[in-house]
Amino acid sequence: MSALETDVIGHLIDIEQQAATLLFEAQGESDRRITEAKTKADDQYKAGYEKIVASLEDSFNSKKQELLDTHQKQMDEFKSRIESQPKTADQFNQLLKDLLEK
To answer: Which one of 7, 45, 49, 85 has the minimum C-beta count within 10 Å?
Structure first.
């Protein structure tokens, strides 16, 4: 082989090594960007998810308290109506006697 052929082959090998290095660096940059984008997307998803969950929990707790308050009010009204009924123990006892004697 002549010196010119050796120089050309050496030059081509150098270019191939530079191309491999450039490809390796590009792959690393690509991996870094993908990881960064995935992390950012995950953070956005988590923030949105937590916001929705917090909103739903607030809505649930508000509705739950409203229902508890309504239930307590109805129970208080029922107790009040029952307690305000006149006590007719004598009439009740007479009714029981009449029913038992039949």
So the answer is: 85
pLDDT in tens, 14-55: 999 999 999 999 999 999 999 999 999 999 999 999 999 999
Q: H helices of the chain, where?
A: 3-84, 89-101
User: Tokens 């009740």 identify what position?
Assistant: 92
Residue the block writes with tokens 């792959």: 27
Rounded Cα distance, 69 and 77, in Å: 12
CB atoms within 10 A of CB 24: 10
Average pLDDT, the chain: 93
